[in-house]
Write a structure and sequence with these properties.
Rossmann fold; 120 residues; globular; alpha/beta
């Protein structure tokens, strides 16, 4: 997201989000939650809290049960493990960055100040 669309983005563990990152959440924030099976209840609780602070929530989960209160849910229904599901998350996140770059008039294939190879 950062490189392709020149947009601020950071990745945090769900429970870590309740510390510093939570202070930045407002009505213009998009929080994307990659829901695991093992931590599902706690992760959904964090997303509900962020939604209560005004954030728009996008949930990526294997199954959509229990996610009715979120307007944006991608349910993969893959039956894969939490570790393997990362491969399914990647195209959704890449497309988000691509469309954000296009909306900002940027060329996602030519990120600003970046090269394919770094020469020292």
């Amino acid at each position: 997201m950062k490189e392709m669309s020149l947009s601020y983005s950071e990745a945090f563990h769900f429970l870590e989000f309740r510390h510093g990152p939570k202070s930045m959440v407002d009505g213009s924030t998009l929080v994307v939650g990659l829901i695991s099976q093992g931590g599902r209840e706690q992760e959904i609780a964090v997303l509900k809290e962020m939604q209560g602070l005004g954030a728009t929530i996008l949930v990526l989960a294997d199954y959509d049960f229990g996610l009715e209160e979120f307007a944006h849910v991608v349910a993969f229904n893959s039956g894969t493990s939490d570790w393997a599901r990362g491969v399914l998350h990647l195209p959704v996140l890449q497309l988000m960055a691509y469309y954000r770059a296009m909306a900002k008039g940027l060329d996602p294939d030519r990120p600003t100040h970046l090269d394919a190879v770094v020469r020292l």
